[in-house]
Amino acid sequence: MGPRKEKKATSAEGSDMILHYLRTTNRPYSAIEISENLLNKVTKAATAKLLKDLHEQKLVEGRTSGKSVVYHALQDPNDAVTSEQLTEYDNRIRTLKDQTADLENVAKTLRTTLASLNSSLSTADMLSSITSLEREKAEIMARLDSLRAGHAEKVTPEEREKVEREWRVMKGVSARREKIAKEFWKTVEEMTESKEKCAELREGWGLDE
């Protein structure tokens, strides 16, 4: 059994196909080009005849180009864009450009924030640091209570200087850790849905003690 012949378009169908094609492409074509671009669903002879009919109906315009005639669809004056519409389009474009710039700035800020959070201590490390600080605080308070009770040995100037140096170092470390703790809690507040949940977390972690 031989290959099935493709059914050709009727005259009315061919006319509609040609007119739709010319309006969609909005370019001039000859009858041969149109027939080929429509995959020969309308024969070259039928295309040439239908183009003449469409030209007589003032639906397409035909102009001689060398030995052939090229056709293009006539534009509907009602489709023309008014100056007011052009101004509206320009304003819309400017607004969209401004919105795009704003969104790019927001995205940049979010990327910076994310990079900062990624470089900070994790939640587990932060809790470990808090526990360590609390333990150091308890030890220091115990030593202070002992000193206040008069259980102190005589301290030489060298020992005093050494202790003061250590104290300055510890004070700097404490300040940095306190800053980290504040940043951590700020992040927790931003990521927690309600104040009640924040209060529960603070109480659970003993931050208000």
TrEMBL record:
> What positions does the domain Homologous-pairing protein 2 winged helix occupy?
15-72
May I ask which residue range the UniProt record assigns to the signal sequence? none
Coiled coil as a keyword of this entry, yes or no, is yes
Annotated GO CC locations: condensed nuclear chromosome; DNA recombinase auxiliary factor complex
Keywords attached to this Swiss-Prot or TrEMBL record, sorted alphabetically, are:
Coiled coil, DNA recombination, Meiosis, Nucleus
Q: Name the InterPro entries for this protein.
A: Hop2_WH_dom (IPR010776), WH-like_DNA-bd_sf (IPR036388), WH_DNA-bd_sf (IPR036390)
Query: Where in this chain does the entry annotate a coiled-coil region?
Result: 86-150
Report the family membership: Belongs to the HOP2 family.
Q: What is this protein called?
A: Homologous-pairing protein 2 winged helix domain-containing protein
